[in-house]
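Our platform keeps sequence and structure together, in a single record for each protein. Nothing more is needed to write down the fold, since each code stands for a local backbone conformation. An entry from our holdings is shown next, in its original layout:
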Amino acid sequence: MDDRTVEFIFNETGAGYTAERLIMKTRIAPAATYQALADEATALIAAGKTSDDQEWTDLATKIAEFRPDVLLASGPYTYSLEDIGDSYMTLHWQPNSIYSGSVQFGEIRLWQGETESTTPLVLNGDIAWATNVYPPATQQAFVDAGIRLVNVPLGYGAALLMQHDTYPFNIKEVRQAMAYAIDRDENAFFTNGFGATGTEYMAGVLDTMVSTLLDADSIAKLNHYDFDVDRAAELMETAGFTRDADGKWVDAEGKRISVEYKAPAEFADFPRRQHQRCRTANEFGFDITLRAIPWQQTAEDIRQGNFQLSVWSWAGGNPLASRQFFGPIQRFNYVGLSDGQKGMNFPMEFEYNGEMINLDALINDVSSGFDRDAQAQRAGRVALILNDLMPFIPLNIISAAQPFNESILTGAPADGDPLYAAPLDDAWMLKLLLEGVVRPAGS
């Protein structure tokens, strides 16, 4: 080993591909800036401290609050605090990266904003490439303006989240009935036109990854919950509900299922799909009221458990099953949140098929080791549990038509290039930007 080489040694039953992926995705940090913090972490490990100990909590807080005066960048661009504004930040070329000689831009401006705020910036040329999910009408406006659209998978989709302290979402049959009662293909179209597809396998991992991540026996047992209001009605009746004179489901005491559905107001693709979802659920017999609130508040309310129904993403662009299972069953549940936050509050330790299980531990263990067959069997077990209990409803999988303005930039491959198959977590633009393939138009 030398000063520029790091060796990682894995045992057969350890983190395996999970750690390997983490190593590849972890950014290099300069010792000149972070060595003291790293030394503190090393000392805690040597002392046998765990994440449950106050010392780790204190160090995590210290790291989160640390603000270096100067950024020592390993990439070809850097910035200072003066380069950060309310709407955008500016990156400046620096000479000390292995990519400094290949990139073709001296300065890059990164804009922050949702679809409504970035749309005019794309149309007027201030933004040359964007990753927002634009609705069909906006996509057509880009095409009419001569802006190329590059279609890429995002690696996630929208999921209906239920707060499990809210009656009757603590009843499995009611959750299953909702899955049957929502036309996911129609909902996908309302989400993003032909840029979204209704979820097929309902397995907690992306449909495109099911055959890779799960074993064949588990795949064959998955319930697809195809749109079927008759089957949904049977499940509601099994759970003890009947319809009143207005066609609304009521329990044995005559109480309707009247709940509020919180949804982010700023996401341009959300209003249509939320109205469609509420409409179809209400036509089936629920009594759901839609409430649009700021997206930051939506996320915070979900974390705090301050909702009855809501929506956020599920799965993720990670190729490992454990990380796809993470959202939202761990991400927005008490096991993955700060102390005092309960999120969905779906119990993760329970009896299932005569056995006490810890679903949180099962998910964390799914991608351990290097035996792919064993991983597929573990992932299949988790998928079947989620598919049966339906703690959230994975509604669709979204792809994005990314505007790429060829009057400003050049170098994007032709449509159908394998690079475009990578989800947003491994964005094609980053590779081509670093290699100097994407460059100013006319150069």
About this structure: The domain at 154-397 is CATH 3.10.105.10 (Dipeptide-binding Protein; domain 3). The mean pLDDT is 92. The first helix runs from residue 17 to 25. Residues 367 and 375 are 6 Å apart (CA to CA).
